Amino acid sequence: MLPLNAEHQGQGKELVFLHGWGLNSAVWKDLAKSLSHDYRITLTDLPGFGVNNRYCPRHYDLDTITEMVAGVLPQRAVVVGWSLGGLVAQKLAIEYSAKIDRLICVNSTPKFMAEPDWPGIKPEVLDAFASQLHSDIGATVNRFLAIQAMGSSRAKADILALRSLLDKRPPPVAEALSGGLKILQQADIRSQLKAIRCPTLRIYGKKDSLVPVAVMDEVERLQPHSVSMLFPAASHAPFISHASEFEQALRSYLAG
């Protein structure tokens, strides 16, 4: 298995950033530039996305892409994962605990699909994305960007920002998009959260329609030693809509 490409900048404590479905590591560009004055930043595109779109495994599942991302992890890293990237980050903390110093999950959850007793994305929404993906990849990704910004007071600006950042890297391959969606549909690591030993910060947006704020209490029950932080006016991408507040929250947590 060929190693993924990764970009490094800055010096200091190791910070690794993982992006969400349909996007790439450019979403962290501004935050990484600012933090690189005090930290060593690693940005990597998930398998099949961005500059790693040539590295798409035949079996695109959570275990496989986690193993691939683990190959670019520095020692004693703080891993920051957003959305699907947060699912990978949690799996890294479970399977590669010796490498992980802290875990920061941004608008993520151990199980994305809703069940009667678990808040999440309605199955029919993910099914519709999977169905549309076969006929129009571009429209599907654009629709997903719109849902990510839904509820934000600056939704239009957020969508434009995400769209612009998406275009800064090569496009994802269809197999990675469909495989990533299947992970969002099927992955359930709730029973494994007790294996996470490192300090964990979980950041949520109150207006998030993909990771409902109601899941916060459920996750705290499963991982009682984690710390939860809520951005009251944010949707699914607080590091875009509330960039300065998000950076300050990260810095405060890392300094503690």
Automatic annotation (TrEMBL):
<feature type="domain" description="AB hydrolase-1">
    <location>
        <begin position="15"/>
        <end position="242"/>
    </location>
</feature>
<dbReference type="GO" id="GO:0009102">
    <property type="term" value="P:biotin biosynthetic process"/>
</dbReference>
<feature type="active site">
    <location>
        <position position="208"/>
    </location>
</feature>
<feature type="binding site">
    <location>
        <begin position="83"/>
        <end position="84"/>
    </location>
    <ligand>
        <name>substrate</name>
    </ligand>
</feature>
<keyword id="KW-0378">Hydrolase</keyword>
<comment type="pathway">
    <text>Cofactor biosynthesis; biotin biosynthesis.</text>
</comment>
<comment type="function">
    <text>The physiological role of BioH is to remove the methyl group introduced by BioC when the pimeloyl moiety is complete. It allows to synthesize pimeloyl-ACP via the fatty acid synthetic pathway through the hydrolysis of the ester bonds of pimeloyl-ACP esters.</text>
</comment>
<dbReference type="GO" id="GO:0090499">
    <property type="term" value="F:pimelyl-[acyl-carrier protein] methyl ester esterase activity"/>
</dbReference>
<feature type="binding site">
    <location>
        <begin position="144"/>
        <end position="148"/>
    </location>
    <ligand>
        <name>substrate</name>
    </ligand>
</feature>
<dbReference type="GO" id="GO:0005737">
    <property type="term" value="C:cytoplasm"/>
</dbReference>
<keyword id="KW-0719">Serine esterase</keyword>
<dbReference type="GO" id="GO:0016020">
    <property type="term" value="C:membrane"/>
</dbReference>
<dbReference type="InterPro" id="IPR029058">
    <property type="entry name" value="AB_hydrolase_fold"/>
</dbReference>
<feature type="active site">
    <location>
        <position position="236"/>
    </location>
</feature>
<protein>
    <recommendedName>
        <fullName>Pimeloyl-[acyl-carrier protein] methyl ester esterase</fullName>
        <ecNumber>3.1.1.85</ecNumber>
    </recommendedName>
</protein>
<dbReference type="Pfam" id="PF00561">
    <property type="entry name" value="Abhydrolase_1"/>
</dbReference>
<dbReference type="InterPro" id="IPR050266">
    <property type="entry name" value="AB_hydrolase_sf"/>
</dbReference>
<dbReference type="InterPro" id="IPR010076">
    <property type="entry name" value="BioH"/>
</dbReference>
<dbReference type="InterPro" id="IPR000073">
    <property type="entry name" value="AB_hydrolase_1"/>
</dbReference>
<feature type="binding site">
    <location>
        <position position="21"/>
    </location>
    <ligand>
        <name>substrate</name>
    </ligand>
</feature>
<comment type="similarity">
    <text>Belongs to the AB hydrolase superfamily. Carboxylesterase BioH family.</text>
</comment>
<feature type="active site" description="Nucleophile">
    <location>
        <position position="83"/>
    </location>
</feature>
<keyword id="KW-0963">Cytoplasm</keyword>
<keyword id="KW-0093">Biotin biosynthesis</keyword>
<feature type="binding site">
    <location>
        <position position="236"/>
    </location>
    <ligand>
        <name>substrate</name>
    </ligand>
</feature>
<comment type="subunit">
    <text>Monomer.</text>
</comment>
